Amino acid sequence: MKIEAHGITKKFGDFTALNNVDLQVPPGQLVALLGPSGSGKTTLLRVIAGLESADRGEVLYGEDNVTGLSAKERNVGFVFQHYALFSHMTIFENIAFGLRVRKWKNGAVRERVRELLKLIQLESLEKRYPSQLSGGQRQRVALARSLAPQPKVLLLDEPFGALDAKVRQELRRWLRRLHDEIHMTSVFVTHDQEEAFEVADLVVVMNQGRIEQIGSPDAIFAHPANAFVMSFLGNVNVFHGRVQNGRAEVGGFEVPYPEHPHAEPQQATAYVRPHELDVDRVSHGEGSLPTRVLRIARSGPLVKLSLMAFDEQIPLEVELDHQRDHDLELKIGDEVYVYPHQVRVFVEET
Amino acid sequence: MSETTLPIRNEATTDPLWVRVLLTGLALAFLAIFLLVPLGIVFTEAFKKGLQVYLASIVEPDALAAIRLTLLTALIAVPLNMLFGLAAAWAIARFEFRGKAILTTLIDLPFAVSPVIAGLIFVLVFGAGGPLWTWLQAHHLKVIFATPGIVLATMFVTFPFVARELISFMQAQGAQEEEAAVVLGASGWQMFRRVTLPNIKWGLLYGVILCNARAMGEFGAVSVVSGHIRGMTNTIPLQVEILYNEYQFAASFAVASLLALLALVTLLIKKFIEHRAHLQLLESQKPLPSGDVS
Known about the structure:
The structure holds two protein chains of two kinds.
Chain A: E1 3-12, E2 15-25, E3 30-34, H1 41-49, E4 56-61, E5 64-65, H2 71-74, E6 76-79, H3 91-100, H4 106-119, H5 135-147, E7 153-157, H6 165-182, E8 186-190, H7 193-199, E9 202-207, E10 210-215, H8 217-222, H9 227-232, E11 237-244, E12 247-250, E13 253-256, E14 266-272, E15 277-280, E16 289-297, E17 303-309, E18 315-320, H10 322-328, E19 335-340, E20 344-347
Parallel strand pairs in A: 3-8, 3-9, 6-7, 7-8
Antiparallel strand pairs in A: 1-2, 1-4, 4-5, 9-10, 11-12, 11-14, 12-13, 14-20, 15-19, 16-17, 16-19, 17-18
Helix pairs in contact in A: 3-4, 3-5, 4-5
Chain B: H1 17-46, H2 50-59, H3 61-94, H4 100-112, H5 115-126, H6 133-138, H7 147-158, H8 160-173, H9 176-183, H10 188-217, H11 220-226, H12 236-245, H13 249-285
């Protein structure tokens, strides 16, 4: 079932958490709401769930307008960041809660709970209490509990936020596999771009109560819509400069910029990812920048170079593969030329 | 999973021996002077003339009437204050609304107002010449110098106990479990009964116990509205005072010993509940054990 949100606006006092947001979640997809804290992603999720009511706008599940329905009536599965398991109930009773309040018969409850315990691979722990479980186990119980009443959609608020790195990794892969099995329309909130890109079919990048870009992980990574998306998606080198006569001059590089053919110059910023820069010992002409090597880190899958551009005193981060590094025989203090494979120029809005 | 931690003596913040002995000694001396000695005296005085006199003083009709009135007052005031406390704590801990700060302050008002003034307010409102006097007369209702006045005064004085206890308890626990219950399809009542109440039960009980102790022991406010009619509008504390003023020391202390016993029992229950409430709060806020996804 698809989820739609139209023109959602939500204010908390003077703070605008959501500013006229439109969102469409295609049926059966796993969608990530990605953004920094305060971007409105959790508020949007809570509005969709009915835990928060929007000042303006509508929420639709499929063809049904659920704007006026309470969270209780919407039949959604919701997983809270801190699990919110009922601490005085066993794991079994936690998962059974949504069924008991719907007056399921005991036998049916037992059958459904066992089925879910099997799904989350915690069959042996049904008599335990939440405080006796590890973080990862609690989060899986929270997921099973939300799935028990067979909700129409599944909403997850920073589902892995409180877990340590290793458990996080395992759990998000598990969530992806689970989603591939049950194919329920799901939305999850995260501030971790790696998490969003690894798990989601569709990523929604949010900032300051607005949606900046919606697209598949590949599309967003390859074609970030604006400067915010580009810089939020991770480590980038930033160059300031201007565009004029179809060319962009940014931080010592000059690249074509046909979008601005006019003679009057305009402020612009260029973004280049570390792996989109290459280095050489000789100059490649106009597009290359003389720099000095400050640091070399060879421990990861890629060699990370920290460089300083001579003219502009701009610090640069570059990632090379080990072979290239080996061929160049780089040392700290070496003078090298940097040239970009790809530069993304965003003209600053005035 | 061991929860015990060894007490660690931190050299930097440990005072010299003589300071520790002095402070501990002071605390114990205070405890003795203000608690143990008076308690001892209550019981020795009560039994001074023998068990016979003690029992006779308690089953004396006026004393029995005072006990009955005190129990009745507590039986009405405590449950009503429990309901009020629940409602107020719920509103304050779970919702944002205009005037919340004022409401929170108002709840504490009875603590700030002298009980005698509180009693006087009721006399002025319900007594002869008060705004409700003619209406009450016309319907043959008696509030002041009668049981309703005593109940009202007691309720006023004791109403912060449950609310205050619950507000901090509920704020500390947060609303997430309740939100989870609602999303899972629970009605307001189902959420309250199956999630909220089990979570706050120890905090609630704690407030009720304190409220009850104060309701039974209240003197000032009740003294003003009661009129001291023997066998009719005297509660236990008032009865104690009357007997004492009439130099019936043994009888006075015998009745007083009932209140002292109540205090001791209250303390015991309070200690037990505090322990449980603390455990429950810890449970709900327990940090995650870092660990494997087995």
